[in-house]
Design goal:
The chain is an alpha/beta fold and 302 residues long. Helix content is 37%, strand content 25%. β2 and β3 form a beta hairpin. The longest helix is centred in the C-terminal third of the chain and has 18 residues. Bound molecules: adenosine monophosphate.
Amino acid sequence: MSILVIGSVAFDSVETPFGKVEDILGGSATYFSTSASFFTDVNLVAVVGEDFPDDHLDFLRSRNIDLSGLQTMPGETFRWKGRYGYDLNEAQTLETHLNVFESFRPELPENYRDAEYVFLANIDPELQLEVLKQVKNPQLVACDTMNFWIEGKRDALLKTLPHVDILIINDAEARQLADEPNVIKAARKILTFGPKTLVVKRGEYGALMVSEHAVFSAPAYPLESVFDPTGAGDTFAGGFIGYLASTRNQSEACLRQAIVFGSVMASFTVEDFSLNRLRLLNSSEIEERFRTFKLLTHFDDL
Ligand code: AMP
């Protein structure tokens, strides 16, 4: 089962306490697609500028990601610059340049319109909705966003959310979106905005999944060396939705396994800058870490 994703394909410049890089491959849709490609086929909708190099496109193609929905427009590719302090859970955005995304009007290739699984990765909520309107009969719509859009395009975001089944955001974004400091209360409030399930990403503390009748909490994989957290959230979403699409099942049990696959994928991304760790990853490493997760969270009943 393939997934349709709209989101950013970007050049990132990132500073962490462990190093600094400029104009490396990044973007919400890039991380999502690469991560999901370990589980299923991905159809990508995005735009890049004429400055985007062929070897990045070749990498995405090497992961079997369909690029017929990726437009190249005159101008520069989206650029994001961020910094992390020793608390790697919070990125400080230094610069956001939308560039070619400012005038991007997505037009889905005909074969994308039958998509059953849709992921609206972090990008302008107006674009998210524009893409969603072109999909005939989606079975599962998941969505991510960030403070930049919650502040700048709140109304558009609130118009998108009623069409979303699963919202995947981090805890600061959940508090901001709900205007409520307690994460559980914030989650309950966000469920009234449309989504049936909310997944709250909590960085090194794991993830929380809240729906009307169930709450599930998973830790993050206890890594000793976290190098760069950029893309962890998108990679998490790629593992989560990728696994769900591969099973075609949305039972509570599958959703919980999907949370763990999301956490497993994110744990690899943060081990290096950009998509460097994902480039080297193989399926047996994913399965091995999934099993370690089970041991990590297992305890006996009384
Ligand atoms: P995360 O998974 O939350 O760490 O997302 C990091 C990625 O989000 C980076 O590779 C950025 O290129 C991308 N990004 C940052 N700001 C935005 C934005 N306002 N809209 C879309 N993508 C963004």
